[in-house]
User: Fold Serpin-ZXA from Ziziphus jujuba.
Amino acid sequence: MEHSPQSNDTTLFNRDFSLRLTNQILEKEASKGSNFVASPLSLHVMLSLIAAGSKGQTLQQLLHFLGSTSVGDLNLLSLRIINLASPAENLAAGGPLLSFVNGAWLDQKFSLKSSFEEIARSSYRAELKSVDFETKAEEVVKEVNSWAEAATKGLIKDLLPAGSLDSDTALVLANALYFKGAWDQQFDTSSTQLREFHLLNGQTTVQVPFMTTGRNTRHLYRSFDGYKVLQIPYQTSQDHSRKFSMYFFLPVEKDGLHNLIKKNIKLNPGFLNQQFNLRLEDDLSDFWIPKFKFSFQLEASKSMKEMGLTLPFQAGELTEMVDSPNGNRLFVSDIFHKSHIEVNEEGTEAAAVTATTFVNCCLGIPTPRFVADHPFLFMIREETHGVVFFVGAVLNPLLEA
Assistant:
């Protein structure tokens, strides 16, 4: 399979650190038997904004991991991504409902550097607020969490844990992504039925509601060595400016998820960006997709450090964000990421929020069939620009958190 021909701006996003980071966390969670969903797009925009406030070796390290040569390019790419998911773009009727917003909460002792504030407002459309971490840290936790909940239509709650902010906190940056798309051809709820889903241990099954389509429905499908791919398009806006699809990657073997991740995702970070050249099958002899709904959360800094992105977590060169009255320097303390997804007969609703806290210190088969009755991967991708919005895995559709 060849990489899809995409413009320079989104090609940069597709090979960046955030997608590789998501893939690494996916592998870890799958080995634990956990459902997983995250947004490489949300993580990418957060790291780009951190890069805009960095200099020296820290900036160079961020540029290296994000696959870019300049902050200007990252800012331009982030603006294009934000525009792609902007509510203003939803005015063309029929397409998915999308929103992507950024926010910043700065301690009242500090002021943002004018250059960083201009970038945050113009390239990232960030809403800026002055707060009091010294005496009202827990109130700010509640404020950020309420902002995230509102921005994700109630899907993401309690993003920041209690006690995650204190008098040492200087700045919180956050973004929130929301997606709601209806299938181009919706499933018939009257055909949904309970079927067995095989868990990864190969011995246990659970009863799960499965969706199917009518006998004459055509499906975008293809079988590869060891796995099958199914693409389900969402309804498209009238101007066809954005085309979203959900992909399901189903191992042939019921216990084949780890092998799929190891052979394809891990060895080829660009796996999800390929053109899979799927074919329209007139009729799959057996076609069932489980309904599922779950949330996932992580603190991403440990995984980032393991992959070599270390300098933003050290005091030194995050000097381009904030004017500090005492000359103290910021460093990243925590990066919280929380995502949610629900897939049912009507379509998909998904959301993701990333918040960063800063402190100052000192095979093919003869009769095609697609029965996702064992652990599988999925992604939501915008086809025109080739941007991956969400990546995940379902190991047990009944697990909600």
Remarks:
- The first helix runs from residue 8 to 14.
- The chain has two domains: 8-181+293-361, 189-292+364-394.
- Residues 1-8 have pLDDT under 50 and may be disordered.
- The chain has nine helices and 19 strands.
